[in-house]
Specification:
alpha/beta; Rossmann fold; 8-stranded mixed β-sheet; 10 helices; 32% helix; globular
Length: 286
């Protein structure tokens, strides 16, 4: 049985150096590497169950994107954007000492994956996009903007969990233990004893600038440049990845395999057996 290891890697930005934390599962010498990248305000521990399922075949590496989880916060908030995230991920991949990787990206993690997979000589050879695509609706961005960066604080972990459940009903049904897991790794105990979220409120600044025009975000040129086998998971109730966008993703670019997850919106958390099985089959078929 492989255990989880907590590690860090030093990355660079125009504002200086920062430390990116990541969890690693499986044989540390395994040349087969799977990178799993979380959503906007989430963290690496979202992938614990998926990593446990796949770490016998892959070395599973799950980073806390800078500004989240156990990673450092950036001094220059304008750098919280895909170009910096892609640069950090390339540093992480270099740390693994491999030429190629598989990639699972939820929401923001999928956008990073699209940007990296579109590059010439990309290291990504198989791509899973979890409820995200090259067209992001303004309505979904507005919904997310309602809570990102508000920096709420709580008296107890139980109150924090109540908040997470309230703002995340689109994650679908989860057990009490799973909701606790989805809460306890994205919060921390502050010096004054209060419970606060473990992400930099400054991540909201470039996010809100991106949505200021009130228009959908279009990234089709990047998606059309992807050539590796691609799986798209769509929450059947998602307002971020619309059915017509997913249908187009099956017809252009890498001509993705599209699987719809029932009774879930944005985004499937890959904690349920059926969701894990879909991802595992796609990756293990390689």
């Amino acid at each position: 049985m492989f255990t989880m290891r907590q590690r860090t890697v030093q990355c660079a930005s125009p504002a200086g150096l920062h430390r990116m934390a990541y969890t690693e599962w499986g044989d540390p010498r395994n040349p087969k590497v799977l990178i799993c990248v979380h959503g906007l305000t989430r963290c690496s521990r979202d992938f614990d169950l998926l990593a446990e399922a796949l770490c016998g075949t892959y070395r599973v590496v799950c980073p806390d994107v800078v500004g989240r989880g156990l990673s450092d916060w950036l001094k220059l908030k304008a750098l919280y954007a895909v170009p910096q995230y892609v640069a950090d991920m390339m540093t992480l991949i270099a740390r693994q000492d491999v030429e190629t990787v598989r990639w699972v990206g939820t929401s923001m993690g999928g956008l990073i994956g699209i940007a990296l997979a579109a590059q010439e000589n990309t290291p990504i050879t198989r791509l899973v996009l979890n409820d995200v695509g090259p067209e992001i609706t303004a309505a979904s961005l507005a919904r997310i903007a309602e809570y990102v960066g508000n920096d709420p604080r709580f008296d107890t972990l139980e109150h924090a969990e109540q908040f997470v459940r309230a703002v995340s009903p689109t994650f679908g049904r989860h057990s009490d233990a799973q909701w606790r897991h989805l809460t306890e790794h994205v919060v921390r105990r502050a010096a004054d004893g209060m419970v606060e979220f473990r992400y930099d409120p400054g991540i909201a600044e470039p996010f809100r600038e991106a949505m200021a025009g009130g228009k959908d975000i279009q990234l089709w040129p990047y998606y059309d440049a992807i050539h590796c086998p691609t799986l798209v998971l769509r929450g059947a109730l998602s307002d971020l990845l619309l059915p017509e966008t997913a249908a187009q993703m099956a017809q252009r670019g890498p001509k993705a395999q599209v699987v719809e997850i029932p009774d879930v919106g944005h985004a499937p958390m890959l904690m349920q057996e059926g969701q894990i099985a879909v991802v595992s089959k796609f990756l293990l078929d390689a």
